[in-house]
Amino acid sequence: MRRTNIFAALACAFLVFSLLGCGTTAHLQSIQLSSSNTTEVTPGTLDLDGEGAQLQLYTWGNYSNGKSQILNGTDVVYQIAITPGSVDQFDDPLPTPPQTVQLTTSGQLTAVQPFICTWVNSAQPPATSPAWGLSGSYMVTSTTQGKTSPPVYVAVASQAGITNTTNPTGECGPPPTAP
């Protein structure tokens, strides 16, 4: 064989392997919900604070090559359910199916009527400020390519809280934190 033929064969083989990545490809390993569209952040319990309050969730894909990226499109499906045993501030079960939170196909949550408070104030006099505990929440997940995200829990504070000596301003839940 001539040197030019060998060189051409080696160049073609190199090109084929570099295009194929030597047989390695990045596979989707897991997905995660995040409240950020710039960085994958595992949220704690989120709070829809106020009538018509909105939160946007994003699905992030984690790949075998260590990279993460936001996943969009019709193959990402968001679901909402009531966390088992959830009640409102009056100890009433949250309505099934979820009626106080609307979830769009793009992952946006909105507090809608009937408004509700899923926080409970457990402070007892002589305390003059509330001690907040979560009495109920919604679970949101996303699914794509056979993978389902761990749930994100969402509290709702769209209704006034019970006014008493430990909650003189009638708040529902802890004050919002800055994003």
In total, the number of domains comes to 1
CATH class: Mainly Beta
Tell me roughly what share of residues is in helical segments: 10-25%
**Would you list the SSEs in sequence order as H and E?**
HEEEEEEEEEEEEE
What amount of the residues lies in strands?
25-35%
Mean pLDDT: 88
User: Which ranges are low-confidence, i.e. pLDDT below 50, for 5 or more consecutive residues?
Assistant: 14-21
The gyration radius over C-alpha positions equals 24 Å
Number of separate strands: 13
Can you tell me the CATH architecture?
A: Sandwich
So what's the oligomer here?
single chain
> Do you know the CATH topology?
Immunoglobulin-like
Tell me about the biggest sheet? 5 strands, mixed
The coarse overall form would be: elongated
Number of helices in the DSSP assignment: 1
Briefly note the structural class of the backbone: mainly beta
Cα distance, first to last residue? 67 Å
In short:
The protein has 179 residues and is mostly beta strands. It has one helix spanning 3-20, and strands at residues 28-34, 46-49, 54-56, 58-63, 68-71, 77-82, 101-103, 108-111, 119-121, 132-134, 138-144, 147-148, 152-157. The protein contains one helix and 13 strands.
